C-alpha cells in the first residue's frame, strides 16, 4: 500500500505533485520512499515508460553526477563488447516489459522499456531505479552503476 505520507514525501522529493504511483518499490533504510512504481499510462492519458522512478534527492543527485562523469560511455562499451552483459541486459528488458504489460498494455510503449534497454545505456536513473526495486541481478547495467555511485542505499541521506 502507498500511504498518504508516502505520496506527500514523494511530492516533496520531486518538487511537484506525485502522479499515478502504484507502489513504493524501494525504500531508504529510514523508511522513506526511494523508488516508486508508476502506472504505464498516466491519468491524463500520457504513456509513461518508466515503471521504476528514482525519487530520493541524494540518490538522484549521485546518479546525475555519475552520468556527467562519462561513466555511461564505459557501460555502453561494456554492453557492446560483453555477450554476457548483453544477454543479461536483454533479459532485464524482457522482464521489465512483462512486468509493465501485466499492469497495463500501452500500445505506444510496445517493445520500449526504459534506460535504453536492451541495446543502449541511456538513463542511469531508470536503470538504478530498476536495480533498487528488483534487487541485485535484475539489471546488470543498473547494478554496475549502483556500485559505482558515491551514494549507498545502506545509509540514509534523506533531507
Main attributes?
10% strand, 3 strands, mainly alpha, three-stranded antiparallel beta sheet, 159 residues, globular
Structure, briefly:
This protein is mostly helical and 159 residues long. The chain contains 6 helices and 3 strands, in the order H-E-E-E-H-H-H-H-H. Helix 5 packs across helix 6.
Q: Which regions have little confidence, pLDDT < 50, spanning 5+ residues? A: none
Order of helices and strands: HEEEHHHHH
Helix tally? 6
Strand content: 5-15%
Query: Roughly what percent helix?
Result: 40-55%
**How does the helix and strand content classify structurally?**
mainly alpha
Mean pLDDT: 97
- Compute the number of strand runs: 3
Q: State the major sheet.
A: 3 strands, antiparallel
Taking all Cα atoms into account, the compactness measure Rg is 15 Å
Overall outline: globular
N-to-C span: 23 Å
Q: Walk across the major sheet and give the strand order.
A: 1-2-3
Amino acid at each position: 500500500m502507498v500511504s498518504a505520507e508516502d505520496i506527500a514525501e514523494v511530492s516533496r522529493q520531486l518538487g511537484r505533485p506525485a502522479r499515478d504511483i502504484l507502489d513504493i518499490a524501494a525504500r531508504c533504510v529510514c523508511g522513506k520512499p526511494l523508488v516508486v512504481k508508476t502506472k504505464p499510462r498516466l491519468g491524463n492519458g500520457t504513456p509513461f515508460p518508466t515503471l521504476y522512478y528514482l525519487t530520493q534527492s541524494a540518490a538522484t543527485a549521485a546518479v546525475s553526477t555519475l552520468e556527467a562523469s562519462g561513466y555511461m560511455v564505459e557501460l555502453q562499451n561494456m554492453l557492446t563488447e560483453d555477450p554476457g552483459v548483453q544477454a543479461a541486459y536483454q533479459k532485464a528488458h524482457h522482464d521489465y516489459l512483462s512486468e509493465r504489460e501485466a499492469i497495463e498494455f500501452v500500445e505506444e510503449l510496445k517493445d520500449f522499456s526504459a534506460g535504453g534497454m536492451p541495446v543502449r545505456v541511456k538513463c542511469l536513473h531508470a536503470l538504478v531505479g530498476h536495480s533498487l526495486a528488483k534487487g541485485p541481478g535484475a539489471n546488470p547495467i543498473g547494478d554496475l552503476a549502483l556500485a559505482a555511485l558515491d551514494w549507498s542505499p545502506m545509509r540514509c541521506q534523506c533531507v
